[in-house]
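In this supplementary section we document a worked example of the pipeline. Step one takes a protein sequence of length 348 as its only input; no multiple sequence alignment statistics are reported here. Step two produces a three-dimensional model, which step three serialises into structure tokens for compact storage. The input and output of this example are shown verbatim.
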Amino acid sequence: MPNSNNPSVLVIYTGGTIGMIKDTITGALRPFDWDHLYRQMPVLENLRCKIDSYSFDPLIDSSDMNPSFWVRLADVIEQNYESYDGFVVLHGTDTMAYTASMLSFMLENLNKPVVFTGSQLPMGVIRTDGRENFIASIEIATAYEEGTPLVPEVCICFENKLFRANRTIKFNAENFDAFLSGNYPPLAEVGIHIKYNRSHILKPNFRKLRIHRGIDTNVAVLRLFPGISPGTVCGILNIEGLKGVVLETYGSGNAPTDQWFLDAIGKAIERGIHVYNVTQCKSGSVEIGLYQTSVSLGRIGVTGGYDITTESALAKLMFLLGMGLDNKQINALLGQSLRGELTVTKEN
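The serialised model returned by step three reads:
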């Protein structure tokens, strides 16, 4: 239970744009000094919470993100879990949705807020979006009511909206409004007050935190497009060591009905490769069998991902493959919601 008079939050700086500030002498961007946070951002005193920081060394650009980093990040949260009421992770925007989605699976029985945020402009730039993103994230990470956190899950706070992490994608490289959750409403909206959408936030289970470190990266993405060749499809499906494929289909899960395509997918499934069907659309759900062009996919053993994002689908495949489950168990879990990452509408 938090100290209501002085809740605490650990800010974990991994790298990325938000943590850069302009050097007053050289004019070049350099890392923000998180050890002297209150001195550099006096307004934080008004939040009436204890803010500590932890910086990765070396810092990592989000383009260089990898599973070993995900494990390190999960370890930092686990090691400090009992000491803080919430966590704010500062991360580069390009792969934030991948990292945050993966952490949502790795942190089983999470009962405290883990809020990812970043910025499109560095903290040290006058028009930065980083300052407001950071302050809002601190408020959300320390928001408790009668000893219970308001948002006990992994989420992304960006441009006045709080999204479930494994429902979020980056869809804009330039605007401050850079993230989108096309299939799930915001968990909170930040204005004069922070309005929490309580009915859509996961409820705490008060069980002991469990960290899953096994991550299997033998996965690939196969994005369909008109005119895709047998060589392209077979080249991906025959990658050495491949165990899982996120198949990005059209609309509600539709794919070519050419026999060569169905044969290639079917043979891959027979070899034990999991094929996870997700839509290329930014919103909407896969419904295998809704149209004739998806009936055959279900018949040969493709698993429908409903409204899961590609980022979350990849994370989920890596996570389940890393658990050492058998194929039947993995296929069953791919079609279930484990951390609120998809909405099951009907049998796929």
